[in-house]
Design brief:
89 residues; mainly alpha; 3 helices; 0% strand
Length: 89
């Protein structure tokens, strides 16, 4: 389960970094499109996180591991959202 947590943390970190970098680019070039950028990124991030959870549940043999993994990913996602929003707003 350690490799799954590492890869999940890497995914969450990359999603946060892409959001922060994209936010800077959109703000510099066309700040009027920031709401659309935020909604698009929120949708993409949510879909990727749900896909990662779904794939883990699909290929996992243990129900308890699947629940722990899903909770871990959701907690990391919420923390990433709080951190990126506090950095950029």
């Amino acid at each position: 389960m350690e490799i799954e947590i590492f890869l999940s943390a890497l995914l969450i970190t990359l999603l946060g970094a892409v959001y922060v970098k994209g936010y800077d680019i959109v703000k510099a070039r066309s700040p009027e499109h920031l709401p659309q950028f935020y909604l698009a990124m929120a949708t993409i991030r949510m879909l990727l996180v749900l896909t990662a959870i779904g794939l883990y549940v699909l290929f996992s043999d243990s129900r308890e591991d699947s629940i722990r993994f899903a909770l871990t990913i959701i907690i990391m996602y919420v923390a990433m959202m709080a951190i990126t929003l506090s950095m950029r707003h």
